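Inverse folding, one chain.
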């Protein structure tokens, strides 16, 4: 059995069942922390994988294998899904050549409350998919020109759990994917607000992020990423900025959602683009 990327043998299930049954007075938070300690389940940076453990507990409950105590309060992660406060955006057009905006600054804001809120509000207002709190490991960037005007917002999060086109292109098998999926980052949001009309800005941002994201990921999570991926709806976008930044289209999705257990849900088919961050990325992913 594999839950949240972790292979669980039968003895692990018995450990969870014993832990829950022995401590009916514990909260779900306490159970997830104790489970992390029991399995020594940490990120590469040494932090407890508390949310991953919580997900395992919830999925085991959904399958009827454990019975968790009632929730005592709303999860802070759920609270963050509330609609962001309205903002007045300066929507005066930003035009001209990229050189006229230089130096362009890129700031990683995932640990900065104000920066996160600004990006969240921007995406909620102007991105066609809106804003969705990134689950698990993620980096969030805002881009500004030399006058501190906001030019773009970019979010990278964990890779898609399965994607046939990607997995065939990499050439890894299931167990390699389960062990090394966190070496791939998914560009889940990329937005230039409608008032920003600067040729080649999108591809320039992608190129600049390509040069720093592995180091940023290493600093925050204690391990690198070696491959970037993104999914583009071809009926909406041509993927021009990705192709201009040397991303490679390697296939399409099948039009199924990750929640489509019964093969009845239909979602838009998307083009898959990838960008390797180092020449030996396949060796790193298939080790």
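Residues assigned per position:
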């Amino acid at each position: 059995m594999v839950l949240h990327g972790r292979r669980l043998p039968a003895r692990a299930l018995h450990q969870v069942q014993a832990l829950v049954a022995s401590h009916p007075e514990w909260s779900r938070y306490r159970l997830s922390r104790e489970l992390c300690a029991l399995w020594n389940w940490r990120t590469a940076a040494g932090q407890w994988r508390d949310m991953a453990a919580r997900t395992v507990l919830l999925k085991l409950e959904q399958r009827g294998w454990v019975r968790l105590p009632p929730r005592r309060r709303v999860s802070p992660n759920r609270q963050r899904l509330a609609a962001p406060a309205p903002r007045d955006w300066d929507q005066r057009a930003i035009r001209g050549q990229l050189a006229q905006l230089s130096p362009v600054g890129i700031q990683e804001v995932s640990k900065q409350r104000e920066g996160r809120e600004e990006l969240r509000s921007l995406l909620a207002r102007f991105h066609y998919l809106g804003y969705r709190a990134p689950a698990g490991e993620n980096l969030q960037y805002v881009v500004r020109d030399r006058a501190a005007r906001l030019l773009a917002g970019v979010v990278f999060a964990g890779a898609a759990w399965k994607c046939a086109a990607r997995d065939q292109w990499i050439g890894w098998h299931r167990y390699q994917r389960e062990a090394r999926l966190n070496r791939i980052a998914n560009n889940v949001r990329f937005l230039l607000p409608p008032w920003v009309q600067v040729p080649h800005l999108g591809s320039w941002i992608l190129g600049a992020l390509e040069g720093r994201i592995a180091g940023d990921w290493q600093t925050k999570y204690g391990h690198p990423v070696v491959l970037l991926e993104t999914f583009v709806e071809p009926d909406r976008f041509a993927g021009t900025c990705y192709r201009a930044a040397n991303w490679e289209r390697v296939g399409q999705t099948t039009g199924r959602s990750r929640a489509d257990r019964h093969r009845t849900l239909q979602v838009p088919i998307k083009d898959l683009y990838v960008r390797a961050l180092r020449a030996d990325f396949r060796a790193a992913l298939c080790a």
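The longest strand covers residues 150-158. The chain has twelve helices and eleven strands.
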